[in-house]
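Need residues for this backbone.
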């Protein structure tokens, strides 16, 4: 629990610090407005890298590798290149898909028509499917380090699609839980700073491990049977 609170707070503090810098430059210097957009991306990148390290720690914890807090930084170091590549791919695809949804929805609102309605629904479905796939990206990134295929972007995208397609109900349920948990953290004011990032990392990694058990990728933990001392029956 201590790690969850500490990791969540550090992630929140770094994100807020970059956001504050972005706002300061954007408000007080017009020439930095374009830089503010870049710093906005920097904020997302900072949160992403923190989440990568925390998820790496969570994966080592649930696989009983007995990590220490310094393994968070080790995870960032080991996963830096694939994490950066995955961040760029996620950002580009998300921007395109949700941009298409907004474009066709506005066009349908202005002009109407069955074609625009159909395009809006198709784009919305693709955006939803992509959002569900993104649920598995971070835990797969950490888990792939121990596999022969490695944490490449292509492998993570393929496996996240297969996990989502083969477990739609489980993935949708997890997605809804994440949204509800995020809303509760925002409403509670302190939840975002103290529990969000750490709890999310453990939730995602535990969920991925359950699916890995289903597919036989990892073994299920044996039940611990309490060894009670044998006693002679009393007369």
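Answer:
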């Amino acid at each position: 629990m201590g790690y969850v609170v500490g990791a969540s707070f550090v992630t929140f503090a770094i994100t807020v610090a970059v956001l504050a810098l972005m706002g300061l430059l954007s408000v007080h210097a017009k020439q930095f407005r374009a830089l503010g957009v870049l710093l906005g991306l920097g904020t997302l990148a900072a949160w992403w890298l923190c989440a990568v390290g925390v998820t790496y720690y969570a994966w080592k914890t649930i696989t009983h590798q007995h990590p220490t807090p310094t393994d968070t930084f080790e995870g960032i170091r080991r996963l830096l290149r694939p994490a950066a590549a995955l961040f760029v791919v996620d950002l580009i695809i998300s921007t395109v898909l949700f941009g298409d949804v907004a474009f066709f929805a506005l066009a349908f609102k202005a002009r109407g028509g069955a074609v625009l309605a159909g395009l809006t629904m198709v784009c919305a479905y693709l955006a939803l499917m992509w959002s569900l796939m993104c649920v598995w990206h971070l835990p797969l990134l950490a888990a792939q380090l121990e596999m022969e295929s490695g944490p490449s972007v292509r492998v993570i995208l393929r496996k996240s699609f297969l996990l989502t397609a083969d477990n739609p109900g489980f993935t949708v349920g997890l997605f809804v839980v994440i949204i509800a948990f995020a809303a509760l953290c925002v409403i509670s004011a302190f939840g975002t700073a103290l529990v969000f990032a750490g709890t999310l990392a453990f939730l995602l990694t535990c969920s991925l491990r359950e699916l890995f058990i289903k597919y036989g990728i990892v073994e299920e933990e044996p039940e611990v049977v309490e060894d009670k001392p044998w006693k002679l029956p009393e007369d």
